Each structure stands twice: as C-alpha cells, then as structure tokens.
Amino acid sequence: MSTSKDWLTWSFSPSISAIIVTLVISLTLPILIHTYLYRKAVAKELPTLLLLGPSGAGKSALLTLFANGTASATHTSQEPQTATCQIPVSTRASEDRYRSENDTSARTQPKFRLIDTPGHGKLRHHATSTLTSAPALKGLLFMVDSAAVSSASGLTEAAEYLHDILLLLQRRHTQGQTSKTPQAIPVLVLANKQDVFTSLPASIVKTKLEEEIAKVRQTRSKGLLDSGIGMEGEGADEEGNWLGEFGAEQFRFAQMQEHGVEVDVVGGNVKGEGEEGGRVDGWWEWVGENL
Amino acid sequence: MLDGVEILTTSGIVLWRRHYAPIPRSVVNSLVADVFIEDRRLQTGDTQQPPTSYRKDKYTLKWTRAKDVGLVFVAVYQSLLHLSWVDTLLTAVKTLFLKEYAPELAKPHLTKLDPARFDPTFDALVRKLDTGSTRRPSVPDSEGPGELTPPSSSASATEEAVDEPPPPPPPQPLFRKPTAPASQRDDTSTDATPVPTPDTSRPSTPASHLLTAKSGPGKASRRARKAQQSFGNSSAPASSGDESATGRAQAGKTGTAKAKRRWDADGFAVEGEEEVLDYSTAGATPSQADNAAGQREAADVPAVDSAQMGTRTPKGHFILKDLDDDISALLANPPHQQNHPPTQTTPSDPTLLTTATTKLTSLFQNILGNKSLTATDLRLPLAQMRTHLLAKNVAREAADRLCAAVEEDLLNRKTASFTTVDATLRQAMSSALTKILTPSSSLDLLRDVTATTTTTTGAGARPRPYVISIVGVNGVGKSTNLSKLAYFLLQNGFRVLVVAGDTFRAGAVEQLRVHVGNLSALARRGGGGSISLFERGYGKDAAAVAREAVGFAAGGTTTTANAGGGAGGVGLLFDVVLIDTAGRRHNDARLMGSLAKFSQWAHPDKVFMVGEALVGTDSVAQARNFAKEFVDGTGRLRNNGIGMDGFIISKCDTVGDMVGTLVSMVHATGIPVVFLGVGQHYGDLRGLNVGWAVERLMR
What we know:
Transmembrane segments (chain A): 12-37
GO molecular function, one term (chain A): GTP binding
Pfam families (chain A): SRPRB
Distance between the termini of chain A: 65 Å
Structural class of chain B: alpha/beta
Shape of chain B: flat
Main location (chain A): endoplasmic reticulum
Strand content of chain B: 5-15%
Strand order of the largest sheet of chain B: 12-11-13-10-14-15-16-17
InterPro entries (chain A): P-loop_NTPase, SRP_receptor_beta_su
Helix content of chain B: 40-55%
Oligomer: heterodimer
C-alpha cells in the first residue's frame, strides 16, 4: 500500500525521471498501438480484370496462358476461376510510361488478378454478379471467337451478351444512387483465334458486332415487357434500356464514351499451330496501359 | 480398349490427360454442357439411379467427381466395346490422384500440375485392370516400373504359361538377363513352335532337361532347340518322347515342324548354327557370342530373390511390390466413404453439461458463421425448405431433387462470417433456382422471324414463313395465348396467318374467328401488320390442314412463289403462321401419337407448350409426355434432342406467389419458359424475368 502510494506520488511529482518516463510512454504507446493494429495491414488490393464471353471463345485457355506462360488444354468451364498474373517483361506498364528505355533500374512488373467466368448461358450470372460487386475492378476482357462470329448464330450470341454487359455498365454509370459516379471500367474485346483460316480480322469483327448490337437493341425495345415490371422502379423507362445514343439508327462503340466506357477491339490468338505460341502482345499492351 | 482418360477441374482446365487415340474436343465439352450444367439426364424420369455414362457420337463416357476439390475424372471409349472395368479404374484413379497431388490440391486457384508423377501409377493401374482380349498393345506407353522379363506375346504361350507349374527358382539370378535376348524378343514371339509343356506321363531325358532349364515362358522353345542340338537330336521340335506335347501344340499341323530360319542383319538367311545366343542354361555352349558376353558383369551380381521385390501378374509381368500392393488393396476394397466424418462429434453419453455446452457453442457458431456444415445441421433447415417449396406449388419430385442438389452442394462447406445456416441455405437455393430457370440461350422471337422471312442464304434458300405451333392439354389457354402472341407480332408489323388446327372441339374455329376479327380491327388502328384466318372446318386431319396452311402462306401457287422468291419476303403472303391444335390428355397415346405426324408435316420452327400455373404435380408428367412426342423423320427429337422450344405458363395472375409450376416444368424437361400469360386481354403477355420468379418463390 505504501509502495503504491509512493509510486503514485512519484509519478505526479515534477521530477526529471517522471517527466522522462511520461514522455517515453506517451510517444511510444501510439506507435506500438499503430503497429499492432496495422500489422496485418490490408495489402493494397490487387487490381482485378474480369474475363467473360460466349462459350468456346478461349477464356480458360487465356487464363492459363497469362498465369503460367503456356496455354493448357481446356474444356467448358462450370465455375469461375481466379489467377494472379504478372505482366511480362516485354510489356510496358502504365506506371513506367515515363521511364526511359535505357533505364536499368530493376522494376518489378505489376501483378493483377484475372477472374475467368463460364460462358455457358446458364452460368452467366457469375460474370454479372462479379461485375457489379467486385472491388478494384479495373477492366473487362470480353473474348470472342473470330471464326464463330462469321456465322449468324455465333454473331448473335456474342452480340447479345456484349449488349447486356454494356447495358449493365451504362446503367451503373447513369443510375447510380449517389452523385459520385463510380470509376469507369474500360472494355477490351479480344478477337481470338486469328490463326484459324475462317477468322475475321479485328476491324471486321468490330463492325459486325456494332451492327448486330444495333439490331439487338432494336428488338429489345420492341419486345415484350418483362414479368418483373414492378420490381425495379426506374429501370423500366425506354431510355434506360437503350444502349448508347438514344434513338440513333446505328450503334458505334464510340457512343459508349459518354458513359465512360471505352471499348477497344484487338485481335490475337491464344494457341498457335505448331511451335509458334500465341500472339497476345496487343492484349498485354492494353492490360499494361489500363491497369 | 480405352480411348482416353482426362482429369479436369470444374473451371475447365485439364490437369492430366492420357489419350490412346485422338478424341475430338467436342465430346468432353458436350458431356460437361449436357450433364453437369444442363442436367439433361433428368428428362428420362429415372430418378432412382444416377447414371454415370453418357453417349455422344460413337463414344461412351464414364465419369466420377471429387466435389470437395472440384475435379472431374472422365474416361472415354468407343461405344461398340463393353468395358466393365472402367468404373473400377475411375475410382482407383480418383483415389490415387488425390493422394498423389494432395499438397497441390489443397492450395486454392490451381491452374497447373506436373503430370509426369502420375503417369507410372496410371500405367500400372491400366495394365492390372485391362486383362481382357481387347488389351491395347502398350507400345506408346512406358513399359512400367519393373519389366524384368520379356512378356509372353503369343497367346498360346500365355495360356500354357498359366497352366504349367511355376518354374523352380532358377539357379542363376534374374538380373543376369542378358540384353541380347531382350532385343531378340521379336524372334521368340514369332516362334512357330510353341512351348513344349512337359508331359509327366512320358518322362524322358530331354523333357526333364527342358523342365529344369526353363526359366521363363517364351524362351523354352529356343532353349529346347539348343538342348536338342546339344544332344545331337534332329531338328524335330520337342523330343521324340513328347509326342503328345507336339501334337497338342501343333494343332492342325501335320508332319514335322519346319526348321526355323534365321535372318541376319542384311536380310539373308543364315544357314546353320553359327552363333549361340542363348546364355540362360547353365550347361549351355560356351559363349562364342561376341556381342555382349564380355561386357556382361552378370556374374558379379549377387543372387536376388525375385519374390521379395514384387509379384507376377498372370501374364508374367513383374510388378514392383509397393505399387502393386497399393493398387490391389485399392481394388479389393474400393473406398466407399465420400464424406469426411462429421467434424462435430456428437457426445456418446449426453450429460446435461455436455449437451448444454454443445448447444451453446453451436448456437454461437450459427450466429457468428464460419461453421462447417454437416448432414445433421442441414437436415432440419432442408426439410423446412422442402415444405416451403411444396407450399409454392413446386412438384414433389422437383422439390426433392432441388433439396438433394443443394444439400450435396453445401455439405462440408463453411458458412460465411455472420451468416446463419438458414441464410446460407436460402442463398444456395436461390442460386439453384436461378440456374434452373435461366435458359441456355434466350429466345428473341422478333429477330428469328425477321431472319427467317428475309434471308436468302448462300445455298439459295428461299425465304419462308415462320411457323409457330401451340400444344397443350385441354383448357389451359392455348387459343387465348395464341391470340396474345398474334397481337404482339401485329404490333411489330408482321403479317400473321392463324390456322385453326383444332378440328375437333365444338366452337374452336368460331372462337378463332372472333379473335381474328378483333385483332384485325386493332391492327387497322395502328401497328402495320395484317392478320387472317385459315380454316377447313371440323373433322379434318390437323396435320393436313397445317401443311396446307404453310404452303398457302409461303405463296400459294408455284407461279407466284417463283416470281416472288428472292429478296425481302416479297413472295410470301404471310410472315408468321400460328397453328392452334386441339387439347389432348397427355396420357392418351393415340392423340399424342398424332403430334409426331403433325410436326413432320408442318415443320414448325417453334413449338410452344402451354401449361397453366394452377396445375400441380401433373405438370411434370404433362411436360415429359409432350416433349417426347416431337420426333422428326429419323426418330430423333427435334431441337437438338429436346423436343419442344419453350413453355408458355398461362394464368399466372391467378396464383399470386405460388409460381412453382415454372420450376417443375423446366426441371422435368430442361425446356425454358419463354412467356407468361398474366390476364385475359390481348396485351397480357410477358417475358420471364428470372429474378422476379426466384424472388416470388423464396418469399
């Protein structure tokens, strides 16, 4: 008892030792608390890219190529798959764009997460739910089989899916709940399988998709009302369901720019025939710029 | 003869594969799409037995799954063969693969494995199981771990190798197997003279000499000949004392056997015996063979007992002990357990304290989440969910199947933090319902119609009218929904022909006449389409009426067809043909049979079946019976083996929340719901919004 009283008296007395002890404690305690709380600091969230597209386009093969360096054999996916990939040394990331070519300082290429989703019609909800809910989503990779696009059914399927995705992005931009618009997500349309004989070049793929999307939005506007008509309050108006410029005859990907969605179409192939591997440089460049 | 085995993840990446013959990629892709994603096997109605084989083109595929790690093991073989051991192979491959790669599989986000580690195990397994006559020669694969004796390659030698008593332990060690005989394996295999089995009834010196000198099947013949020659016998095969063996061995051959001709490297026949290349007998001729004799250090190798290292299969292959034990133990007792034992141990003697603490901990875990779900955890919530679904008018079979699927999905998963078991179950059930109700490819009727009526494809196909037919049981609302559909098409400017294909019911034609009158008045006010009725009265054959109507809509006489055929559907009189049919009970075989003829004569582009939302369990049987009627000329179901193209669920405004019929009918057949009828006016037709339906069901 007497010792505790002594300690208390000493601690409140203006002696040098007490002052020093107080200073030390008051300065180090916050630092200790900070290190304790931030010891498992949330690692800076890796930027995420979402890979989607109609079935059979080559998304799972692209995932294995980006993650492992070589494309492995794949079959139809049933579930989404995530992989951490790193931009190859030959590609310049956007954060290095002001570096000189002769810069010899070692720099590690940025990493990102790639989420591969199934393309089958029944399993597309994985893609749409990830689109609306994923944190740090930096870009969308929409993969298309350039050879299938030359047929009417393949073109229709790809165009419908792309129309739905672009409409989702447009709605996200225009119908946000708060006044702050969410961060824009650029879209890259990958025209895969350019090595196949019947494939169309990337520019033709772009024009075909634009025409088909114009037809799709036309029929959607004239189609039957949905059964869920009373559910979502503001989604029922015509303008909300029209992609791009309201009332325009033609659809161009440039019309999506007003909603902050940049669409590019780049060709390449994941699997090359024989020894030559895939040519994916254009895609890596886009990833490097937009990450 | 297996064509191939593949091991893939649920996200589609092939981790390991072995192809004995090229397999087209579409085969496994269609297995995944038809069985795993769309669950087409449910349409057979066979709910007892989950089938594990799938046929596509000329292949049969069998599979097994490892759900906890998300792997699928697939074996492909030609349908003509009947391989009974494939199931055992798959189970054994699954167990061994999971054991081999357990550390890699425990990590999340697996995209690649080192396949070479599993190859020898797989080869040994196949060799062990595949003992039938359809065995594929193992030339492309590795020879396996312990191939120390040359295989007996001639079938007769094999049988006799089985029959004869096992050879006594050879005096010389097995390791002293010279390489020369290995390279001359082919010589022995093409040996015309078979192994002379010792006939104990006729013991004679040459035979006994053969017996002791034999150290492996397939070699005895050569050895026998050497022995004979060393004894100076004639070149007759078995010793003269063993005529029975000779007779048995040379079935069908008369006279003495030919002397075997030897060929040298240049392709010339070698006359006489210049080299002795058989070094296995103890008293054999001294090695004048120059090639390998000197370098062989066989004499330095200590004697090894082969029985300790492994066992022989009946074919004489020597399999190393550890692999063999593994595999045979596996095959003898196939692992039956699929689930891990429940992590929550139920107390054996329930004292008050233990039950109370268990209950409290489980309650807290329930609230806090991160709880591993066991069967007992899920039992009560699942029963409640099943009752809930039944209360929503989902058929019992569909509800049972849904609950079983959700349970299988959730077993041994952990709940997310701060979610109860109930909430997790609801979430899983919502996603299962969404998956069922979402169609594989959405129907866009306007685009299909435009495409069919305006295209002239490269093959020179003329544009033709788009034919839609409506079928269903009595009184579900076929004519009403048909007129709603006609109204929708009229608003979009198409020319519609309504065909009175119901030639049986009194007043059916008049009913349609009234509808067509109303609709043409509405079309005149706005829209831009036109509508008319095609009818042939009562009592006629519906298929004939339909065919006539389609011909009429396509352009009537041949002259107008030829003149107008070409661009823009000019020659067509009508763009869309809507055919109404008579209502029929789905268990009336005669009436259902006439549907097949109807579809073959009218060639409808779309067949919609109308089902009312008020029907109960009967919906499943209705859907199945109607779907299997629509076969085309070859006997195959139209629309890729599905039958119909969509359901129209009518009278949805009368049921409120209880829209379970949607689920029952889709679950039974895999055919999507395309329209909903929500009233009795012309505009009361809606498309299906899956989110709306699921929300109604889970409410």
